[in-house]
Amino acid sequence: MVFDWFRRQFNQPESLTEAPSEAAPEASEPTGEADRTPVEPPTEQQPAEAEAAPASPPAPTPTINPYNQPCAKAAYQNLKQQDHPAAVEEDPGAVSDDLAATVEPTTDDTAVTTSAPQTIAEATPELEPEPAAPAEPPFFFDLAASEREARLEQLTAEAIAEPEPEPKPQPPAIAEPSAPQGLTFDDDFVWSSEVLAAQGRRPEEISIEEIDWLSSLRRGLDKTRRSLVNQLKSAVGQGPLSADAVETIEALLLQADVGVEATDRILTQLQAKLRQEALPPEQAIAYLKQLLQQLLDQPLETSGRYILAPEKGRLNVWLVCGVNGVGKTTTIGKLAHLATKSGYRCLIAAADTFRAAAVEQVKVWGDRSEVDVIANPGQNTDPAAVVFDAIAAAQARGTELLLVDTAGRLQNKKNLMDELAKVRRIIDRKAPDAIVESLLVLDATQGQNGLRQAQVFAEAAQLSGVALTKLDSTAKGGVALAIAQDLQLPIRFLGAGERIQDLRPFSSYEFIQALLDG
Ligand SMILES: Nc1nc2c(ncn2[C@@H]2O[C@H](COP(=O)(O)OP(=O)(O)OP(=O)(O)O)[C@@H](O)[C@H]2O)c(=O)[nH]1
Q1: pLDDT, tens digit, for every residue of 447-480?
Q2: Enzyme class, one word (predicted)?
Q3: 508 near 232, Cβ under 8 Å?
Q4: How far is CA 288 from each of CA 159, 239, 251, 262, 269, rounded to the nearest angstrom?
Q5: Sign of the C-alpha dihedral, residues 6, 504, 178, 88?
């Protein structure tokens, strides 16, 4: 059974919607929880019962404890088993024991309540294997000593949040869809699997693809997180907020491009809560996470749709817009990849005819994602004509998702509106039954400037949501909150790298965990 990435749902812990309502009237708005369907993992070996009937929503787990690793270890063992079944079949019992002996952290309860980076640093030495060598070398020992050492160094480096280190070099763009590589029981793996576990995922349901995505997201938000977390923790964790603490939190949020409106809202709610009860830093941060997540979820609730997914068996037309350079073409390529991987018949229309190079670029992405591109040879051809041809092709082929690249560089809002309106008219005439969505691509590195672009596009087109790209290249990841608060636009997809698999549907829960807890 093919895993539908578009319909991957995120069950958030109940506490995330309940607690803030005491302090924040907004929290009493409908949460849309009922609309959410249970999580299904993108494993190729779906559990049989999951196919027959959706499992009931998993029991919520209030907080992630990445350093209490039972899920991570079990998931690792399971994935490794899929990788090397023979090796594991020889003596599965020994594998479990060795795993436990090798990575069982001996952190006590106190360590769990300390800040994440500190806990990593404290727990790290205990990740070393016990001195006594096991009788039979387990597969786990293929984590070479050098690899563990590198990991130790990395964890130690990460524990020192300041000064901000140089960003890790991003993997080069990969021309072909590539399977996530390398199964390593490292900090990324542990964090990602515990984030999934906190959403009710069982270890055997955890796939390498999801681990790969969450790891990318976590690494992508590295820069934003580093400039936020430690200072936030010290400011938030001192009982009722002093004027100084308010100022610090305000400055930190604004620095991460959270925006004035969202920052004010967060501070008001946080102050109200901390006046009611003194929370230790970890709990205060947990509360802050709830506030941020609610803020991100609000436009999703208002839109009435938690996910943006093509409807099966029908023609869905997604107009992808955005100014040049924001990652529009890349996003189309990644969406096409996601669509084919998720079992949809997909086609791309190269309707950004304003620039000849745009057509060529989109063709390259079509090749990478193995999706055909409908283009009109010749320069400055009419985009509406390309859409017309593309719809005809889509109808002939039974296409389910037609991704339309639209021009971003139009001199003014009127031109933009006219062009988008013309494309819409063609679609309405040629495919009246199609489901049409408009997705705006925004570049996170542009921070608040992106909001102004969004404003113009929001006025020109009825937007279904935003694809926020380049999160991995900026410390302004907080702009996601400004998009939600100031523009009330739902974020639908996140791009956090240049690889074809580095774009996935948005989860407010995972985003906030990666932002404040990774
Ligand atoms: N690091 C990173 N780079 C990205 C991401 N998305 C896109 N890019 C890069 O951003 C650059 C611009 O991307 P394009 O997709 O060409 O942008 P565009 O909006 O189509 O702009 P034009 O090519 O000028 O039409 C490329 O170098 C992409 O590799 C992302 O999520 N992370």
Answers
A1: 888 898 888 888 888 899 999 999 999 888 889 9
A2: hydrolase
A3: no
A4: 21, 14, 15, 12, 9
A5: negative
Phi, psi of 319 (to 5 degrees): -85, 125
Q: Are 431 and 391 in contact (CB under 8 A)?
A: yes
What sections of 199-327 are H helices per DSSP?
A: 208-220, 222-236, 243-255, 260-276, 281-303
Cα–Cα separations (whole angstroms), residue 372 to 151, 330, 377, 392, 497: 42, 15, 15, 13, 23
- Of the candidates 461, 343, 332, 307, the one whose C-alpha atom is nearest the C-alpha of residue 390 is 332
CB atoms within 10 A of CB 482: 26
216, 224, 330: residue to mutate for ligand 1 pocket, most atoms within 8 A of CB: 330
Ligand 1 atom at minimal distance to the Cα of residue 352: 25
Class of CATH domain 316-463: alpha beta
* Ligand 1 pocket list (CB less than 6 A): 170, 173, 322, 324-330, 358, 361, 469-470, 472-473, 495-498, 502
Joined together, the tokens standing for residue 116 give 């994440």
439 strand-pairing partners: 320, 465
**How sure is the predictor about 234, in pLDDT bands with cuts at 50, 70 and 90?**
confident
Q: Which of 62, 23, 27 is nearest to 240 (CA)?
A: 23
Q: For residue 441, what are its two tokens?
A: 């691509």
Query: How far apart are the CA of 469 and the centre of ligand 1, in A?
Result: 8
**CA 449 vs CA 173, 280, 376, 441, 455: distances in Å:** 26, 36, 33, 13, 10
**Phi, psi for residue 404 in degrees, rounded to 5:** -110, 120
Position 223 pLDDT exceeds 90: no
- How many other C-beta atoms can be found within 10 angstroms of the C-beta atom of residue 310? 26
Q: Is 389 exposed, middle or buried (0-12, 13-18, 19+ CB in 10 A)?
A: middle
How large is the average pLDDT for residues 116-122?
28
pLDDT digits (tens, 9 = 90+) for 381-403: 888 999 999 999 999 999 999 99
What pLDDT score does 138 carry? Answer: 36
Minimal CA–CA distance to 79: which of 51, 44, 54, 55?
A: 44
Tokens of 432: 């009246």
- Domains of the chain by residue range: 65-130+144-160+171-219, 316-463
Residue 426, helix vs strand vs coil: helix
**Residue 310: is the preceding peptide bond cis (ω within 30°)?**
no
Centre of ligand 1 to C-alpha 328, Å, is: 7
